[in-house]
Amino acid sequence: MTEKAIAEMIAAGEVRKAELIDMAGGLYTLSEVAAILAISEPLVEKRRKAGELIAVRLAESYCYPACQFTPHGIVTGLPEVLAMMAIRHDWMRLEWLLVPDEALEGLSPLEALKAGRLEDVIDIARVHKGQDPRQVLSTEDTSGDITDRPLGGTGKGVLVMKGSGLGLLVSLEEGKALLDEITVDDDSTNWAASEILGVARIAEELGTSAATLDLWRDNGTVIAFRKDAHEFVYPERQFEHARPIEGIDRVAGYFPSPEEAWEWLVTPNQYTDSAAPIDRLRSGHIEEVVRAAEGANDYQ
Description:
By secondary structure, the chain is an alpha+beta fold. The protein has three domains: 3-126, no CATH class; 130-164, no CATH class; 187-294, Orthogonal Bundle (Multidrug-efflux Transporter Regulator, Chain: A, Domain 2), CATH 1.10.1660. It is 44% helix and 13% strand. The chain is built from 15 helices and 13 strands. It has helices spanning 3-23, 30-37, 41-49, 78-84, 90-98, 109-114, 118-126, 172-182, 188-193, 199-206, 210-219, 248-252, 258-265, 277-282, 286-294; strands spanning 27-28, 56-58, 61-65, 69-70, 73-74, 137-138, 146-150, 157-161, 196-198, 225-226, 232-235, 239-240, 243-244. The strands form five sheets. The chain has a three-stranded antiparallel β-sheet with strand order 1-3-2. Strands 6-8-7 form a three-stranded mixed β-sheet, with no helix packed on it. A hairpin with a 5-residue loop joins strand 10 and strand 11 (232-235). It is globular.
């Protein structure tokens, strides 16, 4: 990845952050939030670290989007909703909270919460948490391509799928047209993927050393982009609790370059519960994501 491309990604990320701050009605400082909630600053920090509040990092401190507060405290139900989400990246959480959702009839999750639709919003947040155990994918041979039949007397359906060969061959032009029909541009991941930090900044964020980062990079434990002959930069989204998310090394091995691996990791995938694979790794679905990565190039 060239220095120009990295700079463009970072610039796009900054633009999106500014848009979200405006949508959120601005940001509060730690002391302002403590006053709003009538609690101490250390307790606010504790609630932030527990994931009960959204706080975004700007420069050297965390700031709190104003939209999550009312004159009486936190928007009702927001802590419960945040607790259901596997996504821990604060900018992504803020975007999810503010962007209209078709499942809520065009309301944003925040608007729906304020309208008293807590259960609806929790249901939407829950889809990021894991696969529904009531549905399984089977390779069992069946008389048809797809069937739906009861699982263990529960009355719930089991999706059984069987491959049926290559199917009808089409020309290159026809294939491109068919792909265009089913392709969805997902700009929501582009800006999040651009959270790229240099060695000094990421080491400070994680509370680790540059030597440890080098070791992780050499072992393939993290994804790093080469900025120039002597410098690497790191996507921040691949870290949690001051360490790389488990499973990144296993996934990256299926791709020819860090850039291609990262693009795949941050793009929602039908084989990872329609979530970004990196978020499924974060929620512990490592084998699922590895299997999806293994088959990622089957259709290239």
